[in-house]
Write a structure and sequence with these properties.
single chain; 279 residues; 60s Ribosomal Protein L30, Chain: A; disordered N terminus
């Protein structure tokens, strides 16, 4: 009886000392790595299944370390734990991508909101500027209309701008370019109207003659008359930086030079107030 017990103890000692298979060692390590990683948070159900698989392998090892079942269950436990780790990493990566997408969506929404706000503000500013410009243009037109009525002058709108026409007979004596007293009175009124507009407009004084005389003498006379008008306007406060003069001579008649009335119409000075966008 004592011999039988001794043999059993030897057998048990031999079983207890048998080393676990490599697959079981790797399965234990794989499970611990998964457990200590993100699997406990992101894949708890899968981690539990890996633990159950490892327990089966451990039980098979306890029952029979050298059995085929021990090796098979250890291999299954190893692959199960490795799969759990991969699943957890995949979920973590997807979570990172989802977070990045949410952040991108947030930034895009903020950018869209900011762009819309800036666009609305720009539209409002443009509308305000347009209203202010239209109001200013309306005041300028009213001022020129009052000027035309008060000074009995012709004021007309042309593609080149607003044109004030002054008959030469009102401004100068025949063949001269010295301003008459009546001319100075009318030009003083014109200067009062032009001063506020000079900041945003270009003013050009053009001198014109009829066809009597030589072209060269008419050209010189038109230049002198235009310059005389310009200098007087400057003396009345129109900024010199906003006004220029030019002689056109006889080459741009508005009436037939064959008649005295036509020639009188051609002898003129035109003051052109160019639109602001033409500057």
């Amino acid at each position: 009886m004592r011999d039988y017990r001794f043999v059993c103890l030897l057998l048990l000692a031999g079983c207890a000392s048998a080393p676990p298979p490599r697959q079981l060692i790797d399965a234990r390590a794989a499970y611990n790595e998964a457990r200590l990683g993100k699997a406990a948070e992101l894949a708890p159900a899968e981690l539990h299944m890996a633990k159950m698989s490892l327990n089966q392998a451990e039980q098979a090892f306890q029952d029979d370390p050298e059995s085929a079942e021990t090796y098979t269950l250890s291999y299954v436990a190893l692959r199960t734990s490795e799969l759990v780790k991969i699943q957890a990493e995949t979920k973590a990566h997807k979570a990172d991508l989802d977070q990045a997408q949410r952040e991108l969506d947030r930034l895009e929404a903020e950018e869209i909101t900011r762009t819309r706000s800036e666009l609305a503000r720009t539209r409002s500013e443009l509308a305000s500027e347009r209203q202010a410009r239209e109001a200013a243009e309306g005041r300028e037109r009213e001022a020129l209309q009052r000027l035309a009525q008060a000074a009995a002058l012709s004021v007309k709108e042309e593609p080149r701008g607003t044109v004030i026409v002054l008959p030469g007979s009102v401004l100068f004596t025949s063949g001269e370019y010295k301003l008459t007293s009546e001319a100075q009175t009318k030009l003083a009124m014109i200067a009062d109207t032009l001063r506020p507009q000079a900041q945003s407009h270009e003013i050009v004084v053009e001198g014109h003659t009829d066809s009597k005389g030589t072209p060269s003498s008419n050209q010189l006379l038109s230049e002198n008359r235009a310059r005389a008008v310009m200098e007087y306007l400057i003396s009345r406060g129109v900024p010199h930086t906003a006004i220029t003069s030019v002689g056109i001579g006889q080459v741009r008649p508005i009436a037939d030079n064959a008649s005295s009335e036509g020639r009188a119409n051609n002898r003129r000075v035109e003051i052109i107030i160019k639109p602001a966008e033409a500057r």
